[in-house]
Structure formats: C-alpha cells, structure tokens
Amino acid sequence: MKNEKTLLIKEKQQFPLTIKRLGINGEGVGYFKKQVVFVPGALPGEEVVVEVTKAHPKYAEAIVKKVRKRSEHRVKAPCIVYEQCGGCQLQHLEYGQQLKEKRDILIQALERHTRFHLEEMDIRETIGMDNPWHYRNKSQFQLGEDHGKVIAGMYSIDSHRLINIPECIVQQPVTNKVTNVVKQILADFKIPIYNEKTRKGIVRTIVTRVGIETGQVQVMLVTAKKELPRKEMIISEIKKRLPEVVSIMQNVNPKKTSIILGDETIHLAGDKIVEERLEEFTYELSARAFFQLNPVQTVKLYNEVKKAAGLTGKEKIVDAYCGVGTIGLWLADGAAEIRGMDVIPEGIEDAKKNARKHGVENASYFTGKAEELMPKWVKEGWRPDVVVVDPPRTGCDAKFLDTILKVKPKKFVYVSCNPSTLAKDLQVLSSKYKVEYLQPVDMFPQTAHVECVVLMSRVEK
C-alpha cells in the first residue's frame, strides 16, 4: 500500500500539462499534482495532453498525445530520422530560442546545486553558431543489415534497433559521403557485417574524421577480429573512389560492449594522422586522439578562455587536464610560463610535440595529477597565477578542487561541458572564490548540450 500512496501518478494515466521549461536532456518539464513530469519533444509554453510511460516516486516520464497550444518557436525538424535517431534533441526548436533555453539549462543547474544569489550573477547570453548545421568533424556509424542490405547509422533511443542514416545534417557533408561509399565497398565485396545478437560477422563500425580546414579525411574500420577479408581490395577501392581519404586505419574490438573502440589500432594505408588547423595552430590527430567535434565553435570557446584569463605576459599558468595541449597553446603568447598536466602519457607526448612544432618555448608538460604536481611546485617556490581546467563530463576530482583551495591562484578559469557537475564544483570553490561571470557557448547546435566558460577570482580575506 505504501508504494501505491507514493505514486501520485500512474502508468498509462492521461492528463493535460503546461510545459514550463526544458530539462537538461532537452525534454519538456511540467508539473502535475506537484510532481515533475518529463516529456520528450514538448516545448516551454506549450499546453499538451500526455500519457505516462513510467511512474517513479519522485517524477514521471510521459509522451505527448495531443498538442493543445503550440510554442511560437516550434519548427519542423529538417532531418527525416530525427524522432527515431535520438542523436539530436532540439531540431524542432528555432535556433535563436535554443540558445536562450541552453542558458536556462545552466541556470537550472545553478538553482539545483548551489546557494548562489542568481539574480546578482552575470550569466551571459549563449554564443551561437552562424550556421548551426553540418558542423561535426567526426562520425561513428554502427553497421548492420536490413533485409540483406548493409546499413550504417545509430541505435534508436533506449533500444537496439539500428536506424539507417544516409545523411546526417549535423555532420560535415564529406563524412556522410565517405561513410556511404565505404559502406557500399563493404557491400560490393560481401564483407561480413557484425551482428550484435549472434556476435558473428567482422565489421562493426565506420569511423570517419575530417580536418575541416585541411580537407584531409581519415577512415577507421572497427572490426570484431583482426583478420579483415579482402583487406587489400578494400584499401585499393577506398583510394580509388575517395581521393580525399589520406589515412586508413583498423581498430579491433572483439568485446561484447557498447564502447566503440577496442585497445588495438592497426595502420592500413596512407598517413597515420590527419591534420586540422585552428587559426595559426595545426594539430596532428591520430585515430584515437580526442579533439573538439566542432572546430568553428572551438575557436570561439578558446577565445573566451583567453579573455577570461586576462593575460598581461607576466602570468604563470597551469593547464590542468591538458590533453594534447590545445588550450595551453592558445594562451601561450600572453603568458610568462605554462605548465600542463594529464594522466594520459600519449596526450602529454602529443602536447610536447605540438608545443615544439609551433615554437612555443614557455610551455612544459608533465604526466601526472594536478593535485599531486601543484603542491610540489608550490613547495619549490612556483605558484600559478591562473589555473585553467577543462574536465570530462564528470567534472573536477574532489582532490583537485581541494588543491585549488590550498594553492589559491588569483584566477580560476573553468571550461565545462556539463552544467550539473559545473554547478556542484562552483559551490565547493565558492568558499574562497567569487564567480565573476558565466559565458555559455553552443558547441552542439540541435542538441541539449551546453558548454560554459566561467571566470572565478580569489576572494581576498
């Protein structure tokens, strides 16, 4: 009986709902009997009739049965598989309004996880994209078969049904073209396509990456076994049909997993890397190297980091979670010295190589954790003026935040890709740091993702 009482809303129940705002995953959020209801596809300001699909003690999930009042910002999604694919969440919302809602998603996270007075905070308008389509420089399309035909695409939301995507309109057009041609080559040569259920077949995924400024393309075939039948014929055909492909790789992933890449990567033909340029910097991208998926917006993001750091040429900077050194290099000409660190040795080697290649002599890179290296440097008499961090979606490590509070740099610049973990981390730092401003940046138009650059300054007590 107790459970019955707690569930005010029941599965299959239908009721009218007014959508108040967008949730962190791009779904509409409304309230019924003081309980929150999440409705994918519904937009703020809309009045809808919904049917509950899942009832939980604290919230419910529902689908739209009828729209009684439409949002003035609702548009027709241009993608033909938009509702099945799930890769984008906001194509049905006019782009200017997407930018406003992303700022609100950031505000919601701050409301939920901090004790800040938001009305006093400088939360800026989201920096958008001039053309919010065809921006992604990398695609990872799973392969499957449908009635004997080879298909490539993504798994439908919450299911294992593969949706064929001949043209993804948030991808760079060349990645679509290359994926389709490689898919056709595999079909022509009757290469066995991996089947998730039976675990038979060879080729699982086609990964395509393009250097937007250089036009160089890399193709990687992810296979369940090392042996790739008719390998030489596949390589020769890719070279013949796709002259823009300068690098052909193979990755072996024999595991039963949804993780795309395995541990072994084999060089099949051409170069081992492709190059990408961001303004004056050229980056070498190996098959597994992390690189921002939207280079156009990356330039805007990094320029915001530079603006926040407010460099005069005298500052000592720590670039924590530095990866291949992209952000540090961007700041190098305005700093006295940069020290970057990361736990991945290959990333640090790439960072050193990138610094050498660009003649950046004031940057040095170390394998290790910031929470171990920074206190050691302080003991040696080297204290940073500015710390820049660009952590993964899980946010900053608790020990790292503790280290910041102890080392006390004058400025802390936080680059975030997850509003929830950002808000939690800002609350921890607020004991000694003041948030000067938050600048959201739209790196992934048509999705609910929002990046943010935050400037914090040390409170002198």
Automatic annotation (TrEMBL):
CDD domains: AdoMet_MTases (cd02440). It holds the Pfam family TRAM. The keyword Isomerase does not apply. Transmembrane segments: none annotated. Keywords: 4Fe-4S, Iron, Iron-sulfur, Metal-binding, Methyltransferase, S-adenosyl-L-methionine, Transferase. Residues 8-66 form the TRAM domain. Coiled coil: none annotated. Belongs to the class I-like SAM-binding methyltransferase superfamily. RNA M5U methyltransferase family. This is RNA methyltransferase.
